[in-house]
Amino acid sequence: MANWHEKQVIYQIYPKSFKDTNDDGIGDLQGVIQKIPYLKALGITTIWLNPIYVSPQVDNGYDVADYYQIDQSVGSMADVEALIQALHQNGMHLLLDFVMNHTSDQHPWFQAALKDPQSKYHDYYLWAQAKPGQLPNNWGSFFGGSVWEPTPKAPNHYYFHLFDRHMPDLNWQNPAVRQAMIEIAKFWLNKGVDGLRLDAFIHIDKANFKQFAVGESQKPVIDDTFYAHLSRVQPYLREFCHALRAIKPDVFILGEAASASPELLIDYSRPQNDECDAVITFRSIVDRLDQLDSRLPAEFQPKALDVEGMRQRLTTIETKLADVSLPVLYWSNHDMARVASRYASTDYYWQSLKCLAAMLYLQRGLPIIYYGEELGLKNSYLKQLSDFHDQTVLPFYQQALAVGYSADQTMKMLNQTHKMAARGMMPWDSDQPYQGFSKHEPWLNGQQTTPVSVAAETSDPTSLLVFYRQLFQLKQTPLFTAGDEVIQPTANGVFQYTRQLAGQLATVTCNLSDTVQLVTNNDGGQPSLTVGAVDQHAGQLNYSPWSMTVTINDKKEF
Ligand code: NOJ
Ligand code: CA
Asked: Any idea what the CATH number is for the domain that residue 146 is in?
């Protein structure tokens, strides 16, 4: 059954950084409403908002203290209702982030559990006892250190947190937890929300706590074996999704499965399984690791795009999901550095960003654009280590200095690679204070590093913003939403694929390198979108650095 979500172009908004309308320095829901015309003109059909529920903001909203209320920093229930209404009036849809693996430690469930171990809420969370001076096991938290945090006032007793210690994990083995999460989701769907992005759902089942990870016995080891993709994830997910579809058959369920292999993408999105409609994996992007400094951890070192590796990865994903679901196509999100900071060419900045967009978003799949990407926005520059709000940053900084990097070089590396620097303000107008984001100093202490703005790019027909509009117009045609895809074997540095539907064939050819590339394209089609110079040369096409063509043959001549 064709579903509305199969034709969506999704725009991810980090609400705190998009548009502030009451000048407190924090972006808000009224700001999103105000910018609907901008998004519509860009060709966006669905908005995904990062969490907006009541939260102490330890992890920017992924630590939820009340799932039924809006955090006052971004607005009110009336604002979200107005947003839903305004989007629907414009034929657009809203996805909310749904945080199901954990709550905030301030959530009344956790507070009740702490206060009274006999309370029914105690069994909403995960606990373990340890021998004096030891931890229950050596599993590592994604945010550094152990997954175990001492329970206040209970000697040798611990609670489990996969992320920050202020985000205790829920016990999904408890049917009351599963039912409570279903009720929350239904509440939002009944409000008119069109779909949910399921945060970290792959972690809702855990292994036996008695099992140690291989490594030094007490030193925490991050190992998915014990808390990702375990056997009860799918039954729980299915029960959850089934209950939502029972009240809203066309709900769009977008799962976040950071570490999912192509095989797991199939499992989580196979229509017969009644689980997700589409799944985001962080494994669709492939970096080169051969140029790293082996003396430092890879995470905060800049890396180049591995075009060949990405071709292989996307070929696998596109092939395996061909009859299953739509792959999710994205270059950036709030958990990684911005694409312009990662892969843009210094010498061909604008062309390179246009080519990267075309290389990905015309493929078979659902594009998700991270706010500001359409402008060529880079990571902000954060001046203090504390601005990163990440306990793993200081050890990296100290290690880098110890092996000879200067403080300045290290800060540059961190700013180029860190997720927090990717959460900067949307620049609306450079002539306004704080780029028109707010009249008040923004919540994030970061400086814009590229002089881009909506105002400047709206009036420039050659801008990246205008290119994105053209790209999404093309994307919304049946050939690019529904056509079959074949990724072609080409020289490294070139990415080429075809899309085919009925009597139409499109060829997208992108030179993703700083050098000229010779490419064969004999589809006989007419150019419908180009970037940079492409010349005929002895029967082949000569693609100048970071150039791109989309040709379409609709005369059935191929
Ligand atoms: C994935 C989210 O994208 C990330 O930002 C968050 O920290 C974790 N899940 C925990 O909710
Ligand atoms: Ca505000």
From this structure: 3.90.400.10
Number of folded domains that form the chain: 3
Backbone angles phi and psi of 16, in degrees to 5 = -65, -15
Which one-letter DSSP state was computed for residue 460? -
The answer to whether 485 is a known catalytic residue is no
Taking the C-alpha atoms of residue 379 and residue 354, their distance in angstroms, rounded to an integer, is: 18
Task: Check which CATH number belongs to the domain holding 371 and give it.
Answer: 3.20.20.80
Structural domain harbouring 156? 108-160
Q: Is 239 a catalytic residue?
A: no
CB 12 within 8 A of CB 371: yes
- Provide long-range contacts, Cβ within 8 A and 24+ apart, for 173-180: 173/205, 173/232, 174/123, 174/124, 176/120, 176/123, 176/124, 177/124, 178/236, 178/239, 178/240, 180/124
User: Tokens 């954060």 — which residue?
Assistant: 382
Q: Which of 1, 3, 94 lies closest to 52, judged by CA?
A: 94
Query: pLDDT (tens digit, 9 = 90+) per residue, 110-157?
Result: 999 999 999 999 999 999 999 999 999 999 999 999 999 999 989 999
Q: Atom of ligand 1 at shortest distance to CA of 419?
A: 5
- Does the pLDDT at position 306 exceed 80? yes
Residue 60 CA, ligand 1 centroid: distance in Å = 9
Whether pTM > 0.70 for this model: the answer is: yes
Q: Does a structural domain hold residue 168?
A: no
Of 88, 72, 76, 67, the closest CA to residue 26 belongs to: 72
Which residues lie below 8 Å from residue 384, measured CB to CB, with a gap of 6+? Answer: 445
Residue of 199, 222, 334 to mutate, ligand 1, most atoms within 8 A of C-beta: 199
Listed residues 425, 449, 472: the one ending a domain: 472
Residues 36 and 148 in one domain: no
Which-ligand-closest: CA of 57?
1
Cβ(460) to ligand 1 under 6 A?
no
Smallest-distance ligand from the CA of 26: 2
Is 165 domain-assigned?
Answer: no
Domain boundary among 472, 497, 519: 472
Q: Which of 107, 170, 335 to mutate to test the pocket of ligand 1 (most atoms within 8 A of CB)?
A: 335
